[in-house]
């Protein structure tokens, strides 16, 4: 035994260890490869031995060699062997090697599953740790699936060391096995509040990573993160959270508002630059998300810009860089605030640091104006000359083009200058962006008609000097320019000064060395040129010139006919035969020019890049249907057709915004239209662009300034020494300057004249100060042609998402855990609690990912979920009309999230008795989401809520100052106030009465007061009990439902909804809004709302629950807080009033105890609650009465002591009528029930007697409504 | 996410490479070469961020590096990481190395690549920051080293 050990250690003594290997390699500098190959041979020998120590040593050395670039995958099995050693030392070596060289296609990985599982459950935490670390590097979908459950268990390990690793690795598991996200998420969320800061930080890390890709699913965690942000002191965690908020805030503007304050505080207080920077970044994101809605954040913008300026001015280059980076984000939404720091940014352009220069370049994009464009570009051109690296130079080039071409060449006043800039850029050697310059040349020449003469002349020179551009074929990126040059010269050949010379240049033998697609363009355009030349020459008496040209074509073209490029060959032979034929005709003195030029007649107009996509699919055409059934799969890959045609010219692609929501796009589109409308250069799109060209003045009518021939028409590259010593574009700058000067002078002169004439004696108003933007007129009138779009193309910009994004699979709605059939290979203990939903009647809110889509019965199922929802929304909006205007605005903001959030939070919690929210049917939103809403809609500072509550409760005095009432609107008083005023405005209109806003505020107090006076009653109270007051007393539709020492329920039953109009006979639903107010000092939770169904009325419950099950109220109530929930009932017959008994059960939780409590209540559905305020025009009203289908009934009210308009208002408000017509003390009113019954009233008053004659097609309903009206007035 | 961590010396010789996304060996070497090429030509007084490494990732990725004496520590990260945070992390890592090796120098990294890996594993795991507290990192590394020592002693 002893001998064996000795032998083993002697063996090892002779083996090289890692240090020996490294030393050896260092000693064999000359023949390193050879030395290493002998080492590898040794290693192979060592791996064959049984001794695990020797093997581990060998594997360790292999890891080193792997770093040097040697493929060691052949030893994969040995690595697995070492991994399975029982000794930590060797296991660690094995796992390290595996993590360095295993990947998804390593086949031995399958063998490791059980070993890893064993290690994960090892009693030694370091074995587990090593396994987790290794696994994080080489986890495969199979491993993820098989081990997900084990890792999830480790998330609750006793040791924080293991917990944090387990939490972190879950992200990798999610990526490889998305199905695991749903079951693991609750536990992951738990870890956000782990006592160990490391674990907490890991959980934050993982959730941030997840949320970055699919932010909307994590919105519900915002309150939790908010808590962490305000409590954590760990800068790492803070940075992550703040970054996460940056991703969430675009989805939820309310979140942004909430964030601004704490973030601003952090900005002021933190000393850590990294934290400060991230705070600034997120504030910027918030500001961007709010930019449309709230203009009032200039202070925050100023703060950000100020801080960033400090960063940029810092001597630390890192801060400078980051400052510029963040600045560019502000630039997009608040360009003005950035522009004021132009000096600083231009200064950064000269920085020695390339990264900083690049950032500054980005910013330049937003800083240009008509005035300074030339100056800035000139500066950039100087940089182009100086730049050493091609990357930076290419970047400069693209920036110059970007800047100039932005917003449809908005800032270019002189296109001759721009063309010459482009020509100058062709000097760049080895640039990759030849195609970019080329496409700009083409674009400008096509779209700016006035510049064609000049452009053609320039291009002709370029063609003539092509050999200089293409001197070295290897660096032929730039020769793409010739493509543009040839095309422009051909297409607009009528402008050529010397077409024959250009033709000759295009047919030089040297052309044959150009890339094929360029040659093809040469050949084709040579033909166009030829046609033009014929046309010119045929007018002459001497026909020999024309024949000579033909001869030249015939001589030169065969070169191209022999081209290896198919397209060149084809075009050349076609054209050659054509020319031969023409020559024959010429010899017979036949005039051919007309026919030849007819070949190329017509204008080529630019086509919008998305035009193809926008062609509407004709009806009955299914693009996905097979024309021929696909052949069997056997002949698949090698048969794939290769691209036959040359690649399309690569377009310069702008950075793509992957996830721009549609509203945003719509907004941008609108902005763009605006901009186009204001752009004098822009031809407004007309239905048929073809027409535009017919109607637009021809080229000759466009006033073109004389080309100043002091500028030589030469390519600067060709002339090393310029006659004037200036690059050409600079001369244009000079000319432009002069022109502007002249203009200014002229203007001044005119003004002087005017002044002289007027002799008004005013002081110098216009001195030679810097001219304003508007003063600069373009050098000549230019029309920029719009791109062609197919007729009736849809104006939509749909940016497609990358279908291959691995994170797409992780787009899982974690709030909505409704799915019943998710595959879960996880233990039973991991099963998720399926959340109970309050009502199945309103499924739309959960349809976020289309999973929980139990479509509304009225909607046809075929439509995509989104369409459906949109449509539904639209309809609802229609119905709600002006009332919901402001809401709509909000919806626009939120777009998708709207569903997720439901309607509840949109309404301030305690107020807006009147606002009827259709979206706010009890939704299947999960508890978290409602909590989020609650969190967002409630006061930013909890104490505020408390205050609100006390105001609400302890306000018996109606005379309390109106100001306090405002306090009970917890969130951003400004906002709600406007909302309130809006709703009151509406009311005014409806009641045709003037009312002061103050009362509106008072009303709330009355309203609360009212509840108080009735407080304690366990009975339903008829709504609309109001005090007598002048002018119109406030009214409320909320009435106390039930109250005890813990909780107060208030009900608004005025909210009736029939699902979709047009289907009135079918589903009649009534929505009941209940405000729950916690009056105790304890926490109320697990509230369950239940109603005993009657034959006629049923509470809508989620599918699968029994008829007696209660509905969980989707929130909990901290002390003093109130919140509103809505419940949907189905009612079959609406002609009779209904009373339903119900119970609310809840748990009262104190610090030390929790008790079950119960509260009984009665819901009273009056007949008026089935009426919907529907406006009706007097003629329609008259028709209705004439029809004779209506039964009549009447009622007399005695002793009504109120002005007539109050009376009407009361009927309108409490009984949902609208006034059709009013003449003196007589008015006709109309309403409609949810099932479509018409109810017409004629109200007359004389003294204290009011008589109401009513007609309705349903006498029972009418009788009940009249009774209710009577009751309303008897109560006053 | 951190996509790769590279340590190489002033001549571009790799001292530690750690990719959190699979690349074949030759590709890895190419990335190292390119990164070295980008980083080495930069002065010490320019900023520590670099865009344009075309091999790893796209525009979303940045190289964040620090230069210590003869060594470059380069982290390739995406936009979810805070730039200044990563700079701090590199500092933490290097200080940890300094503690574990007692005045770390390039030679330590050359001869103890495995140990450097083990230390790094306590800082970054699978491309995500695991621990930033230096004392905690050092403590865990030391416990594991002791375990290794005791195992080897038992064997002999």
What does this structure look like?
Chain B: Its main location: membrane. Chain B: This is AP complex subunit sigma. Chain B: It comes from Astatotilapia calliptera. Chain B: Belongs to the adaptor complexes small subunit family. Chain B: It is found in: Cytoplasmic vesicle membrane; Golgi apparatus. The complex is a heterodimer of chains A (1276) and B (156). Chain A is of the alpha+beta class and 1276 residues long. Chain A is 50% helix and 9% strand. Chain A has 49 helices and 16 strands. In chain A, the strands form three sheets. In chain A, strands 1, 2, 3, 4, 6 and 8 form a six-stranded antiparallel β-sheet that branches. In chain A, strands 11, 12, 13, 14, 15 and 16 form a six-stranded antiparallel β-sheet that branches. In chain A, strand 13 and strand 14 (1226-1233) form a beta hairpin. In chain A, helix 16 packs antiparallel against helix 17 (298-313). By secondary structure, chain B is of the alpha+beta class. Chain B is 47% helix and 22% strand. Chain B contains five helices and seven strands; from the N terminus they run E-E-H-E-E-E-H-H-H-E-E-H. Chain B has helices at residues 25-40, 83-101, 106-111, 113-123, 134-155; strands at residues 2-9, 14-19, 49-50, 62-68, 71-77, 124-125, 128-129. Chain B has a five-stranded antiparallel β-sheet, with helices on both faces. Chain B has a two-stranded antiparallel ribbon with strand order 6-7. The longest helix of chain B has 22 residues, at 134-155. The mean pLDDT of chain B is 89.
